[in-house]
Amino acid sequence: MRNKYILTLMTLAPVSIGNGNTYSSKEYILEDGYYYFPEMSKLYSTLCNKYPEKVKRFENFLGEPNNKKKTRLTEFLVKENIVERDFNGYKIKATGYETDRRNGNLNEIKQFTKDAYGVAYIPGSSLKGALRTVLENEHFKSKTIIWGAKNNREFFDIFHNIRVGDSDGISSDRLTLVQKWDYSYQKNCVKKLMVHREAIKPMTTVKFEIDTIGSEAAELVELLELYSKQHQKRYRDKYLNLIPDKSLIQKDLRTTLYLGAGSGFWSKVDMERVNLDKIGPRRGKMKMKGRGAFKLTKYYNKASHGEKEYGLINNRQNLYEMGKCIFSIEKVE
To answer: Fewer CB within 10 Å, N- or C-terminus of the chain?
Structure first.
């Protein structure tokens, strides 16, 4: 038995799904309140056609080692009197919250996942991982989950029978840049980290198609909204309630889900099974202290959806819970 569902996801905070690549300061232009990410091949061909005498200097510029005194792409173009800015690519509006630096210059920026045409999207595997976390905590709990084929048994993996497609495309005007902020509940303070990411803006809606095989997989998907509410209560009881500054915690709206990079350790694990003494090769400065840090980022205190603006946070520091979303599921007949 096969069933099809449409999952509609709405972001309540910036969400970042990285593709493993970064933009260096030689690969974007900061001008007129926008970060412009040109196609570097287009930029190079423009120089070859219109400014052949500058090509060698551009090649040398790209080959310069990265150091504190490195020249940025914006500076190179201004210095060489190159006024063209039609190099394809896309722009992201500066918010003033993507960095604490007055001039707005960033160093490396972690890229959002994009398809072969440069259109951003959320991979189905990322959403499936978040859904699996909910099911492991609220449905399976202490039960042993069968993974693949073992002891010459017939292959069976319940999560293999829940197939999540990639999201529809996300337009570049729904992208923003955000900085990583950590809140220590032991010290009751926030700390900025020099990590910057492309992210989807709050109040962005995307859709996914989910296909299930068999009655058990269909039942799990149809119970996801209920399990999500239960899981968020568990997450709040075991983690969020430890945070002294409650203004940093966003309200729970319907079915909550944490998605993507920077959302924190506790949003991605089986909270009953985790052993803080055996969570992996964390040593020295990388060792998690207590229950770790609460993962945040900054954005406007109001987020737009269509022509309306919504207040999603309760603090004056413009801090959001990184990766926080809500979702709904509808069966397709």
So the answer is: C
- Tell me the C-alpha distance between 85 and 198, whole Å: 21
Say yes or no to pLDDT of 119 above 50.
Answer: yes
Single-letter amino acid, residue 106: L
* DSSP assignments along 265-323, one per residue: GGGSS-TTT--GGGSSS--GGGSPPTT--EEEEE--SEEEETTEEEE----TT-EEETT
Provide the residue ranges of all domains of the chain, joining segments of one domain with +.
2-17+117-126+162-276+287-332, 25-107
What is the average per-residue pLDDT within 119-134?
96
- To which H or E segment does residue 183 belong? strand 175-184
The pLDDT of residue 133 is above 50: yes
Task: List phi, psi (to 5°) of 106.
Answer: -110, 170
Percent of the chain's residues with pLDDT above 90: 70
Read off the pTM: 0.90
Per DSSP, the residues of 199-253 read EEPTT-EEEEEEEEESHHHHHHHHTHHHHHHHHHHHHHHHTGGG-S-GGGSPPP-
Torsion of CA 76, 77, 78, 83, to 10 degrees: 180
Contact of 136 with 270, CB cutoff 8 Å: yes
289 touches 160 (CB < 8 A): no
CB neighbourhood size of 284 (10 A): 5
pLDDT given at position 190? 93
| Amino acid (one-letter) located at 264 | G
Q: How confident is the model at residue 66 (pLDDT cuts 50, 70, 90)?
A: low
| Residue 36 CB-density burial (10 A; 0-12 exposed, 13-18 middle, 19+ buried) | middle
User: Mind listing the pLDDT tens digit for each residue in 134-144?
Assistant: 999 999 886 66
